[in-house]
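Closing statement on the zinc ion sub-project.
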Amino acid sequence: METTTAKPYVIREVPGKGKGLIATTKIRKGTRILSEAPLFKLASTQMPQNLLEALILAELHNLTKDQKRAYVALHNSYGQETGVKPIVGIAKTNVLIFNPHKPEGGLFLDMSRVNHACRPNAHYSWNERTGRLTVHALRDVEDRQEITVSYITQGKPRQARQEFLRDCFFFDCACELCSLPPVERDMSDLRLLEVAVIEDQLGRGSGSFHYGRALALLWEMFRVLEVEGVWDQSIPKAYFVAFQIACMYGDETRARVFAERALEARVSMEGEDSPEVVRLRGYVEHPSLLASWQLRAKCPDGLVPPPLMEGEVDDWLWGDMTPEAAVGG
Ligand SMILES: [Zn+2]
């Protein structure tokens, strides 16, 4: 089943969303669904229209007739009233930024058709090493189910998600998470807010408070993410934060487990060739690569975990944490 290189999806009309990617087979969690090189790259799409148009025309000139046809058939979010020419509007709508800290991006024909969901079943990432964009299944995708990714890089409550998607992508999200009944929606918002508050506290406060308090906050964050059913890049990111904190407090044993978990989640979301996976594998094999590891304090005595026992990793990792421990301190 895994031997075929045929695409496990087709691009077809999805009611209310234009075109989308529909699975043509059951796709297991962690499977690479798509690996696509850009049709062309642009240094930025934020420049005067005539300049951007000239750049796009130069790129289109190098393409085949079929590729040009596919380009002009892509969705354009910029209507006539905006004064943006269609050829420019298509690039502004579909060029995907490689790295949130730089304006450079690429135009991908198949990836441009992947619709958004706030709790998606797939994750996309740009692989600088291979020069390709990949999409991996975050959970099992059933045959004929739509493949979705999140256009939002950080978990946000519903209203903030809606505003972001309206401002940047010009649509109102009606995904499963956004369409929950009001009470469940409010519960989900509260959980996502709690995660954001904890991330903020850990980001600003770690190093200044007791390690036990940092561990309790981490434990609470993972607990809430699990209850909320989050399985996306927030998980490897959270484990990496946990790894850094354990390193900072000189807790080598937990640091290794956190790094392994960050690695395992990244592999499943981006594949073995991902630059982030290579970096994390380095930390798992040589935790001293992390600069703060060099500055390590002695792990506080009461918090040195006993040797790891098979089958009870979470009990070992977190000890007897409770929600009260995370709230207090
Ligand atoms: Zn949504």
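The longest helix spans residues 182-205. With this model delivered, the sub-project is considered complete and its resources will be redirected to Aim 3.
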